[in-house]
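Collaborator request, handled under Task 6.
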Amino acid sequence: MEISAALVKELRGRTSAGVMDCRNALAQVDGDLDKASELLRQQGLSKAEKRAGREAKQGLIETYVHFGGRLGVMVEVNCETDFVAKTDEFKQLAHDLALQIAAGGAVCVSIEDLPEETGLDPKEACLLEQKSIRDDTRTIRDIVTETAAKTGEKVSIGRFVRFELGNQEADGVV
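Structure tokens returned to the collaborator:
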């Protein structure tokens, strides 16, 4: 089957994958955009798993202050290079994470960070295990992994802090 440039462009727009990766994926699934998108997603997830051991020392710090200034969030999101940290995809992830933290509930980044004696539900207390406020069919871990697959680098959440006026128990660096 002949793969048109328009088809490759459309798949690139959906997935942010490279031109040759898109062309190859379309060729493997006979031009089916949905199947090609899924194939690229699976390939990206497998690449993300291989990068899990790498250091992610670059990134950015995103802040969010809720209307009225009574609630504020600061989150550190890491990646391997400053090039990826400057992409719109990465910046959007950092912003979405800040909004997720502002929505409340998270006290730590991952289950490993949750003290056992707290008795808190990890699905509510751990940021990576929470359902996304934008899409409740996906967890924050899924979204971070998908961003890592799209960017081609390890992406992780370093730490966060949530400030709320009058509630000093919720404050603190995690």
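The cover message to the collaborator said: "The first helix runs from residue 5 to 15. The two ends are 52 Å apart (CA to CA). Please let us know whether this matches your experimental observations."
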